[in-house]
Protein backbone atom coordinates (compact mmCIF):
# COMPACT_ATOMS: atom_id res chain seq x y z
CA UNK A 1 0.00 0.00 0.00
CA UNK A 2 1.20 3.47 -0.86
CA UNK A 3 1.66 5.96 2.00
CA UNK A 4 -0.86 8.80 2.30
CA UNK A 5 0.15 12.31 1.34
CA UNK A 6 -2.13 15.13 2.39
CA UNK A 7 -2.11 18.08 0.00
CA UNK A 8 -3.75 21.14 1.49
CA UNK A 9 -4.57 22.71 -1.90
CA UNK A 10 -4.38 21.58 -5.52
CA UNK A 11 -1.00 22.48 -7.06
CA UNK A 12 0.09 22.32 -10.74
CA UNK A 13 -0.77 19.03 -12.46
CA UNK A 14 2.76 17.76 -13.29
CA UNK A 15 3.45 17.56 -9.54
CA UNK A 16 0.17 15.77 -8.87
CA UNK A 17 1.07 13.17 -11.51
CA UNK A 18 4.53 12.69 -10.00
CA UNK A 19 3.12 12.36 -6.48
CA UNK A 20 0.52 9.81 -7.60
CA UNK A 21 3.35 7.44 -8.57
CA UNK A 22 4.48 7.24 -4.93
CA UNK A 23 1.54 8.20 -2.73
CA UNK A 24 -2.17 7.83 -2.20
CA UNK A 25 -3.18 11.47 -2.42
CA UNK A 26 -5.70 13.17 -0.19
CA UNK A 27 -6.36 16.61 -1.68
CA UNK A 28 -8.31 19.51 -0.23
CA UNK A 29 -11.60 19.23 -2.18
CA UNK A 30 -12.54 22.90 -1.77
CA UNK A 31 -11.51 25.88 -3.81
CA UNK A 32 -10.35 27.71 -0.69
CA UNK A 33 -7.76 27.40 2.06
CA UNK A 34 -8.57 24.87 4.77
CA UNK A 35 -9.52 25.90 8.28
CA UNK A 36 -7.27 24.93 11.15
CA UNK A 37 -9.71 22.19 12.16
CA UNK A 38 -9.78 20.82 8.60
CA UNK A 39 -5.98 20.74 8.58
CA UNK A 40 -5.99 18.74 11.81
CA UNK A 41 -8.58 16.29 10.43
CA UNK A 42 -6.87 15.97 7.07
CA UNK A 43 -3.37 15.28 8.32
CA UNK A 44 -4.33 12.52 10.81
CA UNK A 45 -3.47 9.46 8.72
CA UNK A 46 -0.82 11.13 6.52
CA UNK A 47 2.85 10.21 6.36
CA UNK A 48 3.61 13.22 4.17
CA UNK A 49 2.13 16.71 4.03
CA UNK A 50 2.43 19.31 1.30
CA UNK A 51 1.21 22.64 2.65
CA UNK A 52 0.96 26.29 1.63
CA UNK A 53 2.41 29.40 3.24
CA UNK A 54 -1.12 30.27 4.37
CA UNK A 55 -1.51 27.05 6.40
CA UNK A 56 -0.66 27.43 10.05
CA UNK A 57 1.28 24.24 10.70
CA UNK A 58 1.49 24.58 14.46
CA UNK A 59 2.01 22.04 17.23
CA UNK A 60 -1.65 21.04 17.16
CA UNK A 61 -1.56 20.13 13.47
CA UNK A 62 1.78 18.35 13.74
CA UNK A 63 0.81 16.31 16.79
CA UNK A 64 -2.46 15.28 15.13
CA UNK A 65 -0.38 13.25 12.65
CA UNK A 66 1.48 10.46 14.48
CA UNK A 67 2.80 8.93 11.25
CA UNK A 68 4.07 12.18 9.72
CA UNK A 69 7.61 12.03 8.30
CA UNK A 70 7.76 15.11 6.12
CA UNK A 71 6.23 18.59 5.91
CA UNK A 72 6.99 19.89 2.45
CA UNK A 73 6.03 23.52 1.98
CA UNK A 74 5.04 24.87 -1.43
CA UNK A 75 6.96 28.10 -0.68
CA UNK A 76 10.42 29.28 0.21
CA UNK A 77 9.32 31.08 3.40
CA UNK A 78 8.42 28.73 6.27
CA UNK A 79 7.51 31.09 9.12
CA UNK A 80 4.08 29.38 9.20
CA UNK A 81 5.58 26.05 10.33
CA UNK A 82 6.68 25.10 13.88
CA UNK A 83 10.03 23.88 12.61
CA UNK A 84 11.55 23.35 16.06
CA UNK A 85 8.70 21.11 17.16
CA UNK A 86 8.78 19.12 13.92
CA UNK A 87 12.53 18.67 14.35
CA UNK A 88 12.06 17.34 17.90
CA UNK A 89 9.68 14.73 16.48
CA UNK A 90 12.11 13.77 13.72
CA UNK A 91 9.91 15.22 10.97
CA UNK A 92 11.72 16.71 7.98
CA UNK A 93 10.65 20.22 6.97
CA UNK A 94 11.32 21.17 3.35
CA UNK A 95 10.79 24.26 1.19
CA UNK A 96 11.28 25.48 -2.40
CA UNK A 97 14.30 27.80 -2.57
CA UNK A 98 16.01 28.79 -5.81
CA UNK A 99 13.20 28.08 -8.26
CA UNK A 100 11.29 31.29 -7.46
CA UNK A 101 14.26 33.64 -7.17
CA UNK A 102 14.12 35.25 -10.63
CA UNK A 103 10.33 35.47 -10.74
CA UNK A 104 10.18 37.21 -7.36
CA UNK A 105 12.97 39.57 -8.44
CA UNK A 106 10.96 40.39 -11.58
CA UNK A 107 7.90 41.22 -9.50
CA UNK A 108 10.01 43.35 -7.16
CA UNK A 109 11.07 45.34 -10.20
CA UNK A 110 7.48 45.61 -11.41
CA UNK A 111 6.70 47.20 -8.03
CA UNK A 112 9.73 49.50 -8.13
CA UNK A 113 8.68 50.90 -11.51
CA UNK A 114 4.98 50.99 -10.65
CA UNK A 115 5.56 52.95 -7.43
CA UNK A 116 8.15 55.39 -8.77
CA UNK A 117 6.17 56.12 -11.95
CA UNK A 118 2.72 56.01 -10.29
CA UNK A 119 1.49 53.35 -12.71
CA UNK A 120 -1.53 52.04 -10.76
CA UNK A 121 -2.63 55.53 -9.78
CA UNK A 122 -2.34 56.71 -13.39
CA UNK A 123 -4.40 53.80 -14.66
CA UNK A 124 -7.11 54.39 -12.03
CA UNK A 125 -7.14 58.06 -13.07
CA UNK A 126 -7.59 57.19 -16.74
CA UNK A 127 -10.25 54.51 -16.17
CA UNK A 128 -12.28 57.00 -14.13
CA UNK A 129 -12.41 59.19 -17.25
CA UNK A 130 -10.14 61.88 -15.80
CA UNK A 131 -7.61 61.99 -18.68
CA UNK A 132 -8.33 65.18 -20.58
CA UNK A 133 -5.09 65.30 -22.53
CA UNK A 134 -1.36 65.71 -21.93
CA UNK A 135 -0.52 68.01 -19.06
CA UNK A 136 2.84 69.40 -17.97
CA UNK A 137 2.37 68.34 -14.36
CA UNK A 138 0.27 65.19 -14.72
CA UNK A 139 1.27 62.22 -12.54
CA UNK A 140 4.84 63.29 -11.98
CA UNK A 141 6.77 60.45 -10.44
CA UNK A 142 10.39 59.72 -9.64
CA UNK A 143 13.25 58.60 -11.84
CA UNK A 144 14.63 55.15 -11.16
CA UNK A 145 17.64 55.42 -13.45
CA UNK A 146 20.82 56.42 -11.62
CA UNK A 147 19.29 56.29 -8.12
CA UNK A 148 20.55 54.45 -5.02
CA UNK A 149 18.94 51.08 -4.41
CA UNK A 150 19.05 49.81 -0.81
CA UNK A 151 18.59 46.06 -0.53
CA UNK A 152 17.78 44.71 2.92
CA UNK A 153 18.53 40.98 2.81
CA UNK A 154 21.15 40.11 0.21
CA UNK A 155 20.36 36.42 -0.27
CA UNK A 156 19.33 34.81 -3.55
CA UNK A 157 16.39 37.14 -4.26
CA UNK A 158 18.21 40.28 -3.07
CA UNK A 159 21.09 39.49 -5.43
CA UNK A 160 18.72 38.82 -8.35
CA UNK A 161 17.11 42.23 -7.71
CA UNK A 162 20.59 43.82 -7.65
CA UNK A 163 21.48 42.25 -11.01
CA UNK A 164 18.50 43.93 -12.65
CA UNK A 165 19.48 47.27 -11.10
CA UNK A 166 22.68 47.44 -13.16
CA UNK A 167 20.58 48.07 -16.27
CA UNK A 168 19.29 51.18 -14.51
CA UNK A 169 22.83 52.39 -13.66
CA UNK A 170 21.99 52.37 -9.97
CA UNK A 171 24.32 52.59 -7.02
CA UNK A 172 23.61 49.45 -5.00
CA UNK A 173 23.97 49.34 -1.24
CA UNK A 174 22.85 46.46 0.94
CA UNK A 175 22.43 45.34 4.50
CA UNK A 176 22.49 41.75 5.64
CA UNK A 177 22.55 40.69 9.30
CA UNK A 178 25.06 37.94 8.63
CA UNK A 179 27.82 38.08 6.09
CA UNK A 180 26.69 36.68 2.72
CA UNK A 181 28.58 35.23 -0.17
CA UNK A 182 28.01 37.98 -2.67
CA UNK A 183 29.79 37.01 -5.86
CA UNK A 184 28.08 39.57 -8.06
CA UNK A 185 30.32 40.76 -10.90
CA UNK A 186 29.52 44.46 -10.35
CA UNK A 187 29.93 46.93 -7.54
CA UNK A 188 27.75 46.70 -4.44
CA UNK A 189 28.47 48.23 -1.04
CA UNK A 190 27.65 46.57 2.25
CA UNK A 191 26.46 48.95 4.92
CA UNK A 192 24.64 49.06 8.27
CA UNK A 193 20.87 49.36 8.38
CA UNK A 194 20.80 53.00 9.51
CA UNK A 195 23.11 54.16 6.71
CA UNK A 196 21.09 52.25 4.15
CA UNK A 197 17.84 53.82 5.36
CA UNK A 198 19.37 57.30 5.19
CA UNK A 199 21.02 56.93 1.78
CA UNK A 200 18.73 54.77 -0.34
CA UNK A 201 16.17 56.25 -2.72
CA UNK A 202 14.48 52.89 -3.15
CA UNK A 203 14.52 50.38 -0.29
CA UNK A 204 13.57 46.78 -0.98
CA UNK A 205 13.09 43.98 1.57
CA UNK A 206 14.21 40.40 0.95
CA UNK A 207 14.26 38.80 4.37
CA UNK A 208 12.57 35.81 5.95
CA UNK A 209 10.15 36.58 8.78
CA UNK A 210 11.73 35.60 12.10
CA UNK A 211 11.62 36.91 15.68
CA UNK A 212 14.55 39.15 14.74
CA UNK A 213 13.03 40.59 11.55
CA UNK A 214 9.50 41.13 12.92
CA UNK A 215 8.75 44.90 12.56
CA UNK A 216 12.34 45.54 11.48
CA UNK A 217 10.99 48.61 9.68
CA UNK A 218 9.05 50.71 12.18
CA UNK A 219 8.71 54.28 13.43
CA UNK A 220 12.43 54.94 13.92
CA UNK A 221 13.36 53.44 10.58
CA UNK A 222 10.76 55.52 8.69
CA UNK A 223 12.16 58.61 10.42
CA UNK A 224 15.58 57.90 8.92
CA UNK A 225 14.33 57.52 5.33
CA UNK A 226 14.60 60.24 2.70
CA UNK A 227 11.54 62.39 2.07
CA UNK A 228 11.17 60.86 -1.39
CA UNK A 229 12.01 57.30 -0.36
CA UNK A 230 10.16 54.39 -1.91
CA UNK A 231 9.71 51.19 0.09
CA UNK A 232 9.12 47.82 -1.58
CA UNK A 233 8.17 44.59 0.18
CA UNK A 234 7.88 41.21 -1.54
CA UNK A 235 9.11 39.20 1.47
CA UNK A 236 6.72 38.92 4.43
CA UNK A 237 4.29 41.60 5.59
CA UNK A 238 5.23 41.60 9.27
CA UNK A 239 8.81 42.67 8.52
CA UNK A 240 7.20 46.15 8.34
CA UNK A 241 5.13 47.64 11.15
CA UNK A 242 2.05 48.23 8.99
CA UNK A 243 0.56 50.91 11.27
CA UNK A 244 3.76 52.95 11.03
CA UNK A 245 3.85 52.46 7.26
CA UNK A 246 0.29 53.79 6.97
CA UNK A 247 1.29 56.84 9.04
CA UNK A 248 4.40 57.47 6.95
CA UNK A 249 2.39 57.22 3.71
CA UNK A 250 -0.58 59.31 4.86
CA UNK A 251 1.67 62.03 6.24
CA UNK A 252 3.70 61.85 3.00
CA UNK A 253 6.88 61.29 5.00
CA UNK A 254 7.97 58.94 2.21
CA UNK A 255 7.01 59.08 -1.47
CA UNK A 256 5.30 55.71 -1.80
CA UNK A 257 5.35 52.00 -1.13
CA UNK A 258 4.91 48.90 -3.26
CA UNK A 259 3.59 45.88 -1.38
CA UNK A 260 2.99 42.27 -2.31
CA UNK A 261 2.67 41.07 1.29
CA UNK A 262 0.79 42.20 4.41
CA UNK A 263 0.90 41.73 8.15
CA UNK A 264 -2.38 39.83 8.43
CA UNK A 265 -3.10 38.39 5.01
CA UNK A 266 -5.63 38.45 3.49
CA UNK A 267 -6.81 41.38 5.65
CA UNK A 268 -5.63 44.69 4.30
CA UNK A 269 -6.30 47.70 6.54
CA UNK A 270 -8.93 50.06 5.13
CA UNK A 271 -6.53 53.01 5.62
CA UNK A 272 -4.01 51.36 3.31
CA UNK A 273 -6.63 50.62 0.64
CA UNK A 274 -7.68 54.28 0.71
CA UNK A 275 -4.20 55.64 -0.03
CA UNK A 276 -3.12 56.64 -3.55
CA UNK A 277 0.62 56.49 -2.88
CA UNK A 278 0.84 52.73 -2.46
CA UNK A 279 0.74 49.91 -4.99
CA UNK A 280 -0.96 46.82 -3.56
CA UNK A 281 -0.64 43.33 -5.01
CA UNK A 282 -2.21 40.09 -3.73
CA UNK A 283 0.97 38.13 -2.81
CA UNK A 284 1.90 37.11 -6.36
CA UNK A 285 5.71 37.23 -6.07
CA UNK A 286 6.20 33.73 -7.43
CA UNK A 287 3.00 33.58 -9.47
CA UNK A 288 4.12 32.63 -12.95
CA UNK A 289 3.02 29.40 -14.64
CA UNK A 290 6.60 28.20 -15.02
CA UNK A 291 7.69 29.02 -11.48
CA UNK A 292 4.64 27.62 -9.71
CA UNK A 293 5.16 24.38 -11.67
CA UNK A 294 8.83 24.24 -10.61
CA UNK A 295 7.85 24.93 -7.00
CA UNK A 296 5.25 22.14 -7.10
CA UNK A 297 7.72 19.65 -8.56
CA UNK A 298 10.34 20.57 -5.97
CA UNK A 299 7.80 20.20 -3.15
CA UNK A 300 6.91 16.77 -4.59
CA UNK A 301 10.56 15.67 -4.89
CA UNK A 302 11.20 16.78 -1.30
CA UNK A 303 8.37 14.61 -0.03
CA UNK A 304 9.36 11.62 -2.19
CA UNK A 305 13.01 11.80 -1.12
CA UNK A 306 12.17 11.77 2.59
CA UNK A 307 9.84 8.79 2.15
CA UNK A 308 12.62 6.93 0.36
CA UNK A 309 15.09 7.74 3.14
CA UNK A 310 17.12 9.98 0.83
CA UNK A 311 18.33 13.51 1.49
CA UNK A 312 15.66 15.85 0.06
CA UNK A 313 16.74 18.57 -2.40
CA UNK A 314 15.73 21.34 0.06
CA UNK A 315 15.41 20.63 3.77
CA UNK A 316 15.38 23.41 6.35
CA UNK A 317 15.89 21.41 9.57
C1 LIG B 1 7.30 32.10 -0.84
O1 LIG B 1 7.53 31.06 -1.47
O2 LIG B 1 7.63 32.23 0.33
C2 LIG B 1 6.61 33.18 -1.59
O3 LIG B 1 6.16 34.17 -0.75
C3 LIG B 1 5.51 32.60 -2.44
O4 LIG B 1 5.05 33.53 -3.37
Shape label: globular
Within the CATH hierarchy, at the fold level, what is the topology of the largest domain?
Answer: Rossmann fold
Helix content: 25-40%
Q: Kindly report the name of the CATH homologous superfamily of the largest domain.
A: NAD(P)-binding Rossmann-like Domain
Proportion of residues in β-strands: 5-15%
Rounded to the nearest angstrom, the distance between the terminal CA atoms is: 28 Å
Tally of domains: 2
Bound molecules: (2R)-2,3-dihydroxypropanoic acid
The ordered string of helix (H) and strand (E) elements is EHEHEHEHEHHEHEEHEHEHEHEH
Low-confidence stretches: none
Largest sheet: 7 strands, parallel
Q: Architecture of the largest domain, according to CATH?
A: 3-Layer(aba) Sandwich
Look at the structure and give the CATH class of the largest domain.
Answer: Alpha Beta
Write down the Rg: 21 Å
| Count of strand segments | 12
Amino acid sequence: MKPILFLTRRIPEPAIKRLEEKFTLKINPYNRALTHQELIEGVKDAEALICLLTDNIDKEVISAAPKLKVISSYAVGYNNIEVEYATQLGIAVCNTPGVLTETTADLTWALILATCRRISESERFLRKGNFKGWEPMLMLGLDVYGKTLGIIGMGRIGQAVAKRATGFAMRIIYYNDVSVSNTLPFETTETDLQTLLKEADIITLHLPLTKETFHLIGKEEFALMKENAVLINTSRGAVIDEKELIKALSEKRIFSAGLDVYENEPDIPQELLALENVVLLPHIGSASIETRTKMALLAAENAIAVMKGRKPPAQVN
